[in-house]
Amino acid sequence: xxxxxxSRPPPSNDANNKRxxxxxxxxxxxxSSNNRKFSVSNGLPDPSRSPSAARKTVSVESTSAHxxxxxxxxxxxxxxxxxxxSSASTTSDGKYSSDSRIMSRINVDRGLLPQTIGCMHVKxxxxxxxxxxxxxxxxxxxxxALELRDRTSDMSAFQVRRCRGCGELLTTTFMCxxxxxxxxxxxxxxxxxxxxxxxxxxxxxxxxxxxxFACKDYVYNYTLEKIRREREELLEAKKLKKRYQEASxxxxxxxxxxxxxxxxxxxxxxLRGFQNMGSTCFMSVILQSxxxxxxxxxxxxxxxxxxNQCQRENCLGCRIDEIFAExxxxxxxxxxxxxxxxxxxxxxxxxxxxxxxQDAHEFLQFILDQLHATSDAKSSSDVDYCGCIVHRTxxxxxxxxxxxxxxxxxxxxxxxFMDLSLELRDRKSDASRILSLQQCLEKFTSPEKLETKYMCxxxxxxxxxxxxxxxxxxxxxxxxxxxxFEHALKSNKIDDHVSFPMQLDLTPYTTNSRSKxxxxxxxxxxxxxxxxxxxxxYTCSMKNREGLWFNxxxxxxxxxxxxxxxTSNAYRYxxxxxxxxxx
Amino acid sequence: xxxxxxxxxxxxxxxESGEYERLSQYLRQKLVENGWYDQVTELASDTxxxxxxxxxxxxxxxxxxxxxxLVPEYVKVELLGMIKRFLEGIVDK
Lengths: 583, 93
Fold this sequence. Notes:
A: alpha+beta, five-stranded antiparallel beta sheet
């Protein structure tokens, strides 16, 4: 390696500069730039110099390249607070890599000002004519050190770093900045080299940090540290890139496998009609209400009922799961014929068999009941606290307060409910006075004098008690049935139009109606009935994930709108509201 | 001489099998978990703060013995055990 002479520092009494003081052999006439030799401390030409352009090659075959040894204590090269200011390595533990944290702590404590950081030896070196050479040498050395450090199972990497004095492989060593020498720290071979030859700069063979043997300390220099950091970051980036590439690298076979077995989801996933298989529109509308129910949909699509694993016979949960899978993955847009679901339903409940029109609300109750029965998540205790998705979605609690007018005693009962059935007309009068959903709910939750007298257990008298229903616990999805079908003397359909809002505040109908917290719900589905009571037709309107409304008439699906849904002439039978935060 | 040869062979096996790296990582992890790392860091900082002309060599001379003593017994035992098992695995080869 060629050497360069640096202008010698002025003689001083500074203890640290002992080596820099003129020695008998030093020649005051050492010129700087012409001679490509450099040595700082005592100006001695290095007798053991061997010119080797490839001194610090990365390739390990070259024996003139520096060897060094990894340190046995994992801490040494990576974690220690290296002297004044060299930081802990940025690579291993993120926690211990904060340069500035350690640095500022030390400097603040010692009251050091920034200009006194680093050692004067380095400063001199880097302001001398040999600075370019020194920087290049440092750059090469850092590259060797950092690249070898990653080769943890490569014997030759350790060989490069081994101490030339004792041959130790597993200990901290320093590569000389000015020659190919490598010496260990523990047995002081590096120190000996610096003393004997006057090369006072060593480079830690694992971290690349600079060590000044004159100062007996790791030293910080902005330029050098920048070089070191750059190399470190470059290597980190390479490693990261490699990791990404390896992770995402699919072989040609794998790629083909993925392509052959994947299906791109259709654009309007979940939007599809049902074929009418003989007055089955009452089923279609209820199924659509489940498909567009965000909570039910999310549960099925995320594997809430795995039809591949389920062992039950005639399992409606599996049928629904299959429908969800079909609707959300198949690119077909033509109506789906739920033949399998039908047969399963018929096997489960005979009364569903046959081709007569059934009641959609009854079917809703049936299917919710079946989904609960076939759920693995159901609890055997009270339904109000059942863990199945159906109860978690639809089940609320009604509180009934019965007040005795005599003693004012209140009997409180709490019952679970899966939907609310609202009367449209006063029982007594035939006149249609109720016009809005809110009025129906108000009627439902207002105190009512019961006709039959009850025996009050408190005051032991027969009284005409007052009963009031309020919603104690609201379900996430509130299903409302508007009781259109009277089964009094003759079955009658009540045709009254009931207006309803997109957004409904249910707080006034709850038990704690004066609560400051507002329980606001949003409409997502409407089931309508057309025609006479026994020979009618069901259609529905549902809101999809993007907030678009669609009309479903068996297999025909058409784009609708909020306005259409609210103002259409159809007779609303079932309404589905979901709590606003989840809509 | 035979000693040195054996040593070299052992080192070679140790490094090339990846065991050296595994042991180092394991030791590092254990020392961090145990709080040793933080203890020694604090010790080093305190020592540095107390020095008038601080440098690395002095620091090592002052801190190293105590740091070594602070390593918990069970860590030493565990590591020695692992090394021993490794050696048993490569002997007779």
